[in-house]
Design goal:
By secondary structure, the protein is an alpha/beta fold. The chain has 6 helices and 6 strands; from the N terminus they run αβαβαβααβββα. β5 and β6 form a beta hairpin. α2 packs across α3.
Length: 181
């Protein structure tokens, strides 16, 4: 199983939806401002090491990645992407804030609108022979891609626009590390 998953990833065609590295304890401030990292939770030292190691693992496994890496505008997601894949390879996409909002109190129609938009995003196939990486947030239990640990990666197979997507696997950083062995 492990070998075949690695072969699939090396052939490309997947979205690697990854949660940011471990963040500091606490909560984002009510007056959160994306321009000011002090208004939000940021990566801890452990989170920074996780991000660097995540990039090293993907390179060591020779998993082809298409650039840019997409991230939410939160400082913790941007820093995770920059540490893993270098600053020049990162593009901020405001859509991924919507995933963060799923953890709040949303009306059913607003949640459905976000999940429909998520589906549209995850249906897009990456360039031939490569994989797309998105670094954003976990989901509430049972919603979207579900709960994701720090630097956890959901392997998604886009089926094409209007055709949905398939979740192939969910891997923790330790699971990815085991693929190296």
């Amino acid at each position: 199983m492990r070998r075949s998953l690695l072969d699939l990833l090396r052939d490309g065609g997947y979205v690697l939806y990854t949660r940011h590295g471990e963040a500091t304890v606490g909560e984002d401030l009510p007056n959160l401002n994306f321009q000011y990292c002090f208004t939000q939770r940021n990566l801890s030292e452990v989170g920074r090491r996780q991000a660097i190691y995540y990039g090293e693992i993907l390179r060591s496994l020779q998993i082809p990645i298409s650039y840019p890496i997409l991230t939410s505008p939160f400082c913790r997601t941007i820093e995770t992407a920059q540490l893993a894949f270098r600053r020049a390879n990162v593009r901020i996409d405001p859509f991924w804030v919507e995933i963060y909002k799923l953890s709040g109190n949303l009306s059913d129609w607003k949640q459905k609108r976000i999940l429909d938009s998520l589906q549209s995003e995850l249906e897009i196939k990456p360039p031939q022979g490569s994989n797309k990486v998105i670094i954003a947030h976990s989901f509430p239990k049972g919603i979207g891609l579900g709960e994701i640990p720090n630097i956890g990666t959901v392997i998604v197979k886009p089926l094409g626009q209007g055709k949905g997507y398939e979740i192939i696997n969910k891997l923790s950083l330790a699971d990815l590390d085991n693929l190296l062995r």
